Amino acid sequence: MSDAASQVLISRLSGLQARIAQPADRSMVRQLVMADALHMLADVPGSVRSMMVSIQVEGRMDNLRHGRPDAETLLLGLDARMVGMMTLDWTGPDGVALLDLTILPGQRRRGLGGMALSALCGTADGMGLPVRAALFYHSDARPFLSRAGFAVTNDRGTEITLVRPPA
Question: Contact at 8 Å (CB) between 78 and 12?
């Protein structure tokens, strides 16, 4: 079901191009994750920043490869340039798991993440599925997801789970 669901999602993305990432795209995915990690850790002192970025990138890449083996990563493009990615697992018993939505730092605040999230929610609604996301408690994504109808359903201290029920 995941490939078919992702194809429906891709068809709903207006304003963005998207395709399912393939093994040959690992380098591109790594570059997107690296850009996000560098932005996220920009205020960390240089003496430890490179080590922390490396840990962040390796952890996220490992999670993409092994954490959810049925998950698919969609590469998001605008004007033939890669601007982000979205990793989803459609196979879980609790609805769609939004595992990652990353927009390159220089492309943020232009509505691209909102377009991707809106298409995801519309696709999940059409399938009668909730969308779930787990975040670090102070993630910048929390207000973004809240505006899209996600609500906290579980707070484990350092990690929160947000769910958007189907409309």
Answer: no
Can you give the residue ranges of every domain in the chain? 2-164
Q: What is the pLDDT of residue 90?
A: 92
Q: How far apart are CA 60 and CA 67, in angstroms?
A: 9
Q: Does domain 2-164 have CATH number 3.40.630.30?
A: yes
C-alpha 90/C-alpha 25 separation (Å) is 21
The whole-model pTM stands at 0.88
CB 117 within 8 A of CB 61: no
- Cα 33 from Cα 24, distance rounded (Å): 16
- How long is the chain? 167
What stretches in the chain show pLDDT beneath 70? 1-2
pLDDT of res. 141: 86
N-terminal to C-terminal alpha carbon distance within the chain: 20
